[in-house]
Amino acid sequence: MINIVANGQKIEAREGETILTALRRAGIKVPTLCHMEDLTPTGACRLCVVELEGAQNLVPACSYPVAEGMKIKSHSARVLAARKTIIELLLASHPDDCLYCARNNKCELQSLAAELGVRHRRFYGTYTKKPLDISGLSLQRDPEKCILCGRCVRVCEEVQTVSAIDFIKRGSKTFIGTAFDQGLNVSSCINCGQCAVVCPTGAIVERSYVDQVMAALADRSKYVVVQHAPSISVTLAEEFGYKPGLDVDGKMVSALRWMGFQRVFDTSFSADLTIMEEASELVHRVQNGGVLPMMTSCSPGWIKFVETFFPEFIPNLSTCKSPQQMLGALIKSFFAEKQGIAPEDIVSVSIMPCTAKKFESGRSEFQQNFLPDVDYVLTTRELGQMCRMFGIEFDKLAPEAPDTPFGERSSAGKIFGATGGVMEAALRTAHLLITGKEMDELKIAALRGLKGRKETTIDIEGLNVGIAVVNGLGNARRLLEEIKAGRNDLHFIEVMACPGGCIGGGGQPLGLDKEAVQRRMKALYKIDTEETLRQSHNNKWVKRLYEEYLVKPLSERSHHLLHTHYSQRELLR
Amino acid sequence: MANDTLTAIEPILDQYKGAARDALIPILQEVQEQEGYLSRDSIRVIGERLRLPTSKIYGVATFYNQFRFQPKGKYHIMLCRGTACHVKGSKKLLDAATRLLKLEPGQTSRDRLFSLEVVACMGACGLAPVININGEFFAKVTPMKLAKIIEQCREKEVVHAEA
Ligand code: SF4
Ligand code: SF4
Ligand code: SF4
Ligand code: FES
């Protein structure tokens, strides 16, 4: 323990930590821009400067280690003036675009300017004129709004080990770009959107399809249906200032109906369906000497990662489409037939925690007769935006139930939203397939929690199944390297591209808060604990779907509608 | 294509077997020396060898002015921005060059006819401001004179095409 003095008050600090960490623990708020919890500090922005007695210059709190007896002033006049100047200098080369900006009201630069009392333009700089990059389906980049804090670069490199973007050129010409400054669409970017989540400004945001969805809702000739992913109901409320972890499932359904969606379906239903197919596929592979370990395929960022960086593992990927794409395929086939609606008159919208889902819905694998199975993907944030447009007040809404035939779900489908959830759900069904009996204890504690990698072995009546669950692609990369190096004790691996799984997805409400992700996770597992229908195979609408249409898991029709194949992607074409 | 590149730069990479990131710059230099520029294929191959992402290599390479990412044009114009030339108005000359050629330094025209490169000093300060096209020096170049030189190159090509 080290004692330091901050603003005249004694506070305790720990050996080796930075001034910032110590101050924050003591409840002293120091603004930061380039700093990111757990990632390499760069000391690039200097916004976190504090006055250190005995030092001539202000020091950056985020990278300066504490020492015994240090005397710090975190908000002296000198410090505040320096911080204000830093923001003013950043604004000197920043467009005055707030009113039209996707991050208006949610922008760190904007709120810092407000907090520090910036009232007029003190410096005039030129900003590099660079065009918007709207080449990708998931994200768009506006280099003019970039303040070069490097958060996106570090997340992409250190957390995801993708490194699609980096600092290009130098000095006043520096910008963030891809290799050869190509569009994101042809880069190695896997569309996870983690960069958009950490970007303090509007320089990287999701491609929004709100306008298109609004137009579809206004078009009387269209039948507009919506599905919402398992995690949305436990994160949407944050868009309206509620504490993370509040479940607004039923209210969200009524909000969607109020907006004019003709059917509100639950992607957790098709998550149950995914489990039926995927567990069957696993058992089939195990019993017939198929390629193992089998790897889950519901996270589209992960899929592109494998296609780009580890094509040798494509045969390991489950052939199951993701729940979004399974439901999309069923809506424009089974549902359309049943309702007597032409597939081209259906507009299929999905609400996802994920920016990569936008890319996924545009893949050619997921079209029937040149019609995309899913027309528009909106993130949780965009749904929040639509709720605001429609003047929806959550506390005044009465909860409603989703629509048949894709409205019922088991809680196994619901926990898909958290890292480890797919695995737990799949094992519940695989156990039944192998032994003919339900599992006694459904909760597998070793697979829960936010750790980057979780491993265990499950004994299913003498069959030892080696299991790993990873989230964040850096963790996935390390596991794949181990397997490449000869590791062979694993049978089934769940991978989610985003840290924490979908609850930490690139389309979720903004903020760098780990605690928020923790609370979202708790909310999902609470639903599982309180639910009576806890296994995908007991979902009666799933059973009905098989009886009426799909026949059985891995049937010919299932293969046609619910499975797919992937192929290698070349880097830098 | 990728395989050709691999065969071509393999000997260079082999000299740096087991090398880490710090070998990047010398490798880039040698590859450019041999190939004339850094192609996508070479950057990908170098990345695979050094286990470096392509964006990182591109970022490092663009940090320095010496690397180009497009093959040189038939007429490779080097424009000096050294002190002597600067004093004699090479900034204006550069502006004229980018305007006339519609090229930024480091770029090559779509028809592969021209490429533009800015160099620090060519050791021909007596001729300032000076440019060099495919090894040939042009002295005391004004924007007007540059326009003529470029025009002459273009005309030569038209004659070639007609002949
Ligand atoms: S990025 Fe922030 S400061 Fe810049 S225009 Fe958008 S809202 Fe305004
Ligand atoms: S979306 Fe993901 S992979 Fe693409 S640039 Fe952002 S962090 Fe990197
Ligand atoms: S794009 Fe955003 S996160 Fe990346 S450097 Fe620019 S401002 Fe920072
Ligand atoms: S937050 Fe400390 S230097 Fe940027």
Structure description:
The complex is a heterodimer of chains A (573) and B (163). Chain A is of the alpha/beta class and 573 residues long. Chain A has 3 domains: 74 residues, Ubiquitin-like (UB roll) (Roll); 118 residues, Alpha-Beta Plaits, CATH 3.30.70; 352 residues, 3-Layer(aba) Sandwich (Rossmann fold), CATH 3.40.50. In chain A, 34% of the residues lie in helices and 14% in strands. In chain A, a hairpin with a 6-residue loop joins strand 3 and strand 4. The N and C termini of chain A lie far apart (54 Å). Chain B is an alpha+beta fold and 163 residues long. Chain B folds into 2 domains: 62 residues; 88 residues, Glutaredoxin (3-Layer(aba) Sandwich). Helix content of chain B is 52%, strand content 11%. Chain B contains 7 helices and 4 strands. Chain B has a 4-stranded mixed beta sheet, with helices on one face. In chain B, helix 1 crosses helix 2. Chain B starts with a helix and ends with a helix. The chains are: A alpha/beta (573), B alpha+beta (163). The interface between A and B is medium-sized, with 20 and 15 residues. The site of one iron/sulfur cluster has 13 residues of chain A, from helix 3.
Topology:
The complex is a heterodimer of chains A (573) and B (163).
Chain A: E1 2-6, E2 9-13, H1 19-25, E3 49-52, E4 59-60, E5 71-73, H2 77-92, H3 108-115, E6 139-141, H4 151-159, E7 165-168, E8 175-178, H5 194-198, E9 204-206, H6 210-218, E10 223-228, H7 249-259, E11 263-266, H8 267-287, E12 294-295, H9 300-309, H10 323-339, E13 346-352, H11 356-361, E14 367-368, E15 371-372, E16 376-379, H12 380-389, H13 411-414, H14 421-435, E17 453-460, E18 463-471, H15 473-484, E19 492-496, H16 514-530, H17 540-550, H18 556-562
Chain B: H1 2-15, H2 24-35, H3 40-50, H4 54-63, E1 75-80, H5 83-87, H6 90-101, E2 114-119, E3 131-133, E4 136-138, H7 143-162
Parallel strand pairs in B: 1-2
Antiparallel strand pairs in B: 1-3, 3-4
Helix pairs in contact in B: 1-2, 1-3, 2-3, 6-7
The structure holds iron/sulfur cluster (3 copies) and FE2/S2 (inorganic) cluster.
